Amino acid sequence: MNRGLSLRLGWVLLAGCLCLLAGRATAQIQLPAIDPTGNRIFLPPGQTTPLLGPGSAGTGLFGHHRSNVPAAPASSSNPFANWFGHGQRAAPPAQPAFTHPPDPPSCNSCGLPGCRGGAACGLGKPKQHIIPRPTGPLDRGRSGEIIMTPYRIVAPVGSEVVVLAGICGGDGHFVKNQPLEWMLSNDSVGQIIEVGGMEHPAFNSVVPPSSEKIDGQFARGRTGLKHKLLTRGTPTPVDDIDVLDGQTYISLSSASAGTTYLTAVAPNAAGWDKRRATTVIHWVDGQWSIPAPIVTSSGTVQPLTTAVTRMADGTGIQGWKVRYSIVGGTPAEFLPTGSQTAEVDTGRDGQATVQVRQQAGKIEPGTTQIRVDVVRPAIAGEQELVVESGLTGITWSSPALTLRAIGPRAAAINESYNYRLEISNPGDQTARDVIVSTDDLGDAVEFISSDPKPTVYGKRYEWRLGDLPPGQMPAAINVQLKSGKRGMKRSCFRVASQSDQLQTEACAETEVAAPCLGLRLDGPTSARVGDEFEFNIEVVNQCDEALNNIVITAQYDPGLVAMNLGNPVQANIGSLQFGEKRTLPLRFRAVADGVQCFALNVVADGGHTAGGRRCIEVANVATGQVSLQVSGPQIVARGQNVDATATVTNTGNVPIDALTVTNRFSASLEPAGATEQYPHNWLGNDLAFFVGRLSPGQTAQVAVRYEAREIDEQAFTQFSVSSPSGSQAEQKLDIRVESGQGGAAPAQPNQANIGIPADPAGSLRVQVESLDPEIVADGRSTGRIRFSVANNRTSADQNVRITLLIPPGLQFAGLDSSQGQLKIATSSADGTRFSLETRREMRSGEVLSFVLSVVSTVAGNSTVEIQATSDNTLGSVTGQSSIRAVPGR
């Protein structure tokens, strides 16, 4: 019993030791550097050798699969990292070194990425309705197939190549703990450095792995029990090699150029055609570098140089071939033949250089893609070998200029027409000293104006645009022209950069035609209320035949009254012969201020027409005028606040009602708050402030705070003032937002609490309906107009003001309110403007209804307008209704 107890205690202690051993870090193998001179096996400690495994760039081209480990950046200290090491290649390969590499064997899993479907590693699908018998590791090893990776690789002399192998069993997984034998053929160069055996997390600390290198050409190994990581000892993990469960490895090196034929055999496998596999390693005594991508100017000749040097001393290797091929991108050619391919042998310095230029007539910005193949010549009975196949590129950089001339296809004789010139730089460099010019207008085309203004040299006009950066919105020039002759008029414009030797032009054509009916208007542009003024209407026959039954019709606004004539005014001037003119006077009296307009329409037999419109600014004798001053900083730093203040003053002699201040600003400025003294809200993308009534001499200040979000040299904030009476003003403040440190303007005193409220739901609404659309112009017949003002908001509104605007053709006769609450408060001396008492508060959904009575003594159409304003309304809400007065019978 004591002995049995002792044995049990011993097993417990052994199990504890094994657990401690199992808790140690997984094995990592650091491979010392190989001495390529052959004087000794390894270099002194601390030096490493290029380690090539299945995850290397070459393996990706010629092996079974790529490693899942990412590639590290290429190192200048390891020139072979671009191809053989674990670094990133300078360019992606265009084709493998071997034209027809065999397809990797298919399998179910075996831990390999990209395995294709199948029962197990090429063994075919199992028959349906047959349940395969359970297989042990030995059975799977006997029926499996060796998977080696890589199966072909090009490596530099002195480097160390790692080859992985495993037996893919009948269940689609690598079989663990299976023996493998490695051997080199007699005609192979190089030797075996290290062979991997079975690894166990606990036993390997006591029992070494089951692997043995017999000599430099033969070794025995065993597939592992667990995952293992091969490392070069560098801090970065990107050059490590993963050895999966059921795989083993072998490393080889060669101090001389040649070929190694490595064979792996699974001695326990029963399938003779699947128990062996071979890897071919081509050792090359040389290192090479293909040209890196280049950026150069368009129109130049660019050399490309590939260098091939020896590993030992870095001297050049002569006689290697480098093939260059243009495979895409911007058109180019090789000198001197102008072909798309070129083959150059390396010289004594190991360099192969070719000259590339863009094709004639196709010089433009872009990138030309070029494939570079480095070919080792045939030596020692071996054929030529493509050791590198990569891509490089030449980016041709240059400015460019384009010009578009956009204009109308047709225009009338002696009438102005506009051309828009758009100038852009589609290149990738700045075009310097850009000048747009025209000297081809001719005598038949007259230059009127342009924006921006040109510099005039006789008949030549120039617009200097300065430097034009690439990729920006086109610069625009608006040109206004006129022609006094009929026919097709062609105008050409030229854009040029003398500094960059660039020039192009664009032309536009406009058909100038003369209508049969010519119409001309002469008269004043401004007047005061009560003034009488006259317009002269000139009609001319511009056709080659007589025009008959010519009728002129004039329709004018309610603020104008045609003397002793109705609205519209109509006159028949009879017939006109070719070239004959007829002038008619049209006299008006201004009865309301503001912009008043009238429209003319002339018709003649045969469908000939002409038309025109003329407006006049009518001012009241007693008018309210406003002045506007905008202040704020002109230079701020990005991220800081900008405070802009608009000061509005009534400089007139009468009050201004329903005054509104509108603020427009650039996209680089973000509103952060605004003065709460006046109701304000969004009006599209602008902010609108309802100032309301402004007495003569009274001043109102509106302040807005912005946050400078983006660097912008052309930022701005613009304030506009308007009122229903026509008083208006506008001023703009330019602001430059810089990236450096800068101070924001101090906040205005009235900006202690700022905020931008959301738009309240609903709005104020005005509805107008004519109960008597037609009345007799006898001064007694009454015409009734019913109107209502409703608060359609979800909240109450304050200080609702209602104004009645009655045109001079009508007279106020009475107002009937259904609620009996509001009465006439004030009226103008001429009887055209009536203001109702202010409604201090109007509840949500409340409606105020009225019936307005008017009489007329003048025949014609008249329009009555109702205006409503409130604290929550931007500007005013209006409604209109017309009454027609007919002569008494």
Give an account of the 3D structure.
The chain has about 900 residues and is mainly beta. The protein folds into six domains: about 30-100 and about 140-285, Immunoglobulins (Immunoglobulin-like, Sandwich), CATH 2.60.40.10; about 285-395, Immunoglobulin-like; about 400-515, Immunoglobulins (Immunoglobulin-like, Sandwich), CATH 2.60.40.10; about 525-615, Immunoglobulin-like (Sandwich); about 625-740, Immunoglobulin-like (Sandwich), CATH 2.60.40; about 765-885, Immunoglobulin-like, CATH 2.60.40. It is about 5% helix and about 50% strand. It contains three helices and 63 strands. Strands 54, 56, 58, 59, 60, 62 and 63 form a seven-stranded mixed β-sheet that branches. The radius of gyration is 47 Å and the shape is elongated.
Task: Produce the secondary structure layout.
Blueprint: H1 2-22, E1 28-30, E2 51-52, H2 57-62, H3 137-142, E3 145-149, E4 152-156, E5 160-168, E6 179-184, E7 191-195, E8 212-215, E9 218-222, E10 228-231, E11 241-243, E12 247-253, E13 258-265, E14 276-284, E15 287-289, E16 294-297, E17 302-309, E18 321-329, E19 332-335, E20 341-345, E21 351-358, E22 366-376, E23 385-397, E24 402-406, E25 410-412, E26 417-424, E27 431-438, E28 445-451, E29 455-457, E30 460-468, E31 475-483, E32 487-497, E33 502-513, E34 517-522, E35 526-528, E36 532-541, E37 547-556, E38 560-562, E39 569-576, E40 581-590, E41 594-604, E42 608-619, E43 626-631, E44 635-637, E45 641-650, E46 656-665, E47 669-674, E48 680-683, E49 686-694, E50 699-708, E51 712-722, E52 728-738, E53 764-770, E54 774-776, E55 783-791, E56 797-805, E57 810-817, E58 824-827, E59 833-836, E60 839-842, E61 847-856, E62 860-869, E63 877-886
Parallel strand pairs: 1-10, 2-5, 4-14, 16-23, 25-33, 35-42, 44-52, 54-63
Antiparallel strand pairs: 3-5, 5-12, 6-9, 6-13, 7-12, 8-9, 10-11, 13-14, 15-17, 17-21, 18-20, 18-22, 19-21, 22-23, 24-26, 26-31, 27-30, 27-32, 28-31, 29-30, 32-33, 34-36, 36-40, 37-39, 37-41, 38-40, 41-42, 43-45, 45-50, 46-49, 46-51, 47-50, 48-49, 51-52, 53-55, 55-61, 56-59, 56-60, 56-62, 57-61, ...
